[in-house]
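Q: Entry one of two.
A:
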Amino acid sequence: MKPANALRIAGLAAALAFSTHAPAQTLADLEPPEALIKAAKAEGRLMLYTSMNDNNSRTLLNAFEKRYGIKGETFRAPTAPLVQRFAVEHDGNGVAADIFSVASPLPFKNNPEWFAPLDKSFAPNLANWPKEGVHERRYTWTNEILALAYNTEQVKAEEVPKTWADIINPKWKGRIVLSDPRAADNYMGWLDAIETAFGMDFVRKLGAQDFKLTPSGASGVQMVAAGAATLNLPTIATFATPLIEKKAPIAVIYPGEPQLASARDIAIVAKAPHPQAARLFLNWTLSLEATKLYCGVNAVAVVGDPDGKAGCVPLRGAKEVNFEVSEERVRTLTRELGLNK
């Protein structure tokens, strides 16, 4: 990561993902059988459906193409609409995606038939991934702290909210763009954790801040960088990275008390049009090469590099958001926030 990013993305190395982790084996660059590589190259294409930002997806796909000659495409959307689109495609037998990745385990848990079982026979790099991050039909890739982005031309450094409690200060009224909690499980998990920490009256006060809504942190940081809003929350730091690289007036911090993290999973689509390319890509994302690449352009923690030996942010102690907020509680939280009017 460039020094400018390290300076402007503040506080990431404080407490990140989860309180404990089992020691991982050293990541490697293990190749699957040559027959699979040949078959994947014959397919020649790969489609990634994801909620991660386009810059991250393109960085990975470009490197994958350079290594194997397989052209990658990506479709990005916030988690909820992405899942809806994929469900329609799956039920209509018109699946376009080969790989599916979102920052929520629920689509994988609730719809296991959508995804193919993982197997070390085609993904030998699974053997070096921490066991707690490997599941039957997906693996947990990254853990990211939920962040707050702010416009550096509109906010002095000493004024930036340091904790989540600071966001209801009257000075921010009309200046916040809120990532819609209904659009992604991790954003709803954030709202759930905020209410647990500060109470329902805090949620009502946040609702009185006259915020704008955005469907994702990706569009929220764009609004902040353009000066259309002063703060965006919650968001993911990697959404802001390309803007920071372009010297846009935006920076990211990680409010504490509580500090909250969400995990991102990856899976192979069961009806993938290019199944061999999907298998090859998944194995490559588990490699040391891909991990170094991803962490070289993002301040992020990767499950396979818990100690940061490959250049990732070391995993420390932060609270994982609840991805399974009950429907009744969702209705209550959104009502008190003023979203159900």
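Q: Entry two of two.
A:
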Amino acid sequence: MTPSLFTIASYIGDNEWFHFARKELTEQRPVQPHYHDYFEVFLVERGQAWHSVNGIEQRLQTGSIVFVRPDDVHAIAASKGTCRIINIMFRIETAEHLVARYSDAFEGRFFWSPGLLPTVAALTGPRIERAINTMLELQTTHRRLELIEEFLMTLLVRVVDLPETSGAKLPGWLVDACARAREPEVFRVGASALVAEAGRGHEHVCRAMKAHLGLTPTAYINRIRMEQAALMLASSNAPIADVALACGIENLSHFYRTFRGHYGRTPRSYRQEHGRSPF
């Protein structure tokens, strides 16, 4: 299959500097082979993926983050069932500015690797959470130049380029509590249930989560709730009020405000765009 040229102008306006996407991929409907006139970074947020790039097949695990260059010919699909990726595209001028200004730190690395394959970093533990949180901050912001530059510096310097030992600092009790927070009996109750699972005082848990994950317990729970809501909206015809209750939110107005804050649109418009289709 002849690869297609994807252009940044197809995604953003003349005065915009980046594009954010969060996609559910399947085995049956992979992204078509393409190259582009922009730089791209994507993270496998959940599941596993096959990444075909420059004639070579890569298997990516949850936490894999890939720094794609304009001339890389690539395509991606879930390797088993479905997977979810977060994708940020940005203009070539932004990359050129960063590598010129910070050549000692970036030249020959990340987006600027000279090798056949783009750089792939395998994030683990709290660094996956940090990467997700950092990327999601771009979901509902204006697409301004200073925001994409701030994002890239944070991602490269404070997330990906940390020493491998940094992940070991995450306390075991916090790892267990965060894992339990994804269970319906916890996230439906809310932040108080997460704190209870941690077995520590509320302030202590708040400080630890802000330091390691960049989120408060409330923000962490709300993100899980909204992920569950988005999944239900895309995969079922359940009434929106029932979706809110299934996520632990009884006030429908509060649910609408929280969902819009995470996804930049109403639950109804999200369902219309994503329902029954991975794109």
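A: Comment on entry two: The two ends are 21 Å apart (CA to CA). The beta strands are 4-6, 18-26, 34-36, 38-46, 49-53, 56-60, 64-68, 74-78, 82-91, 119-122.
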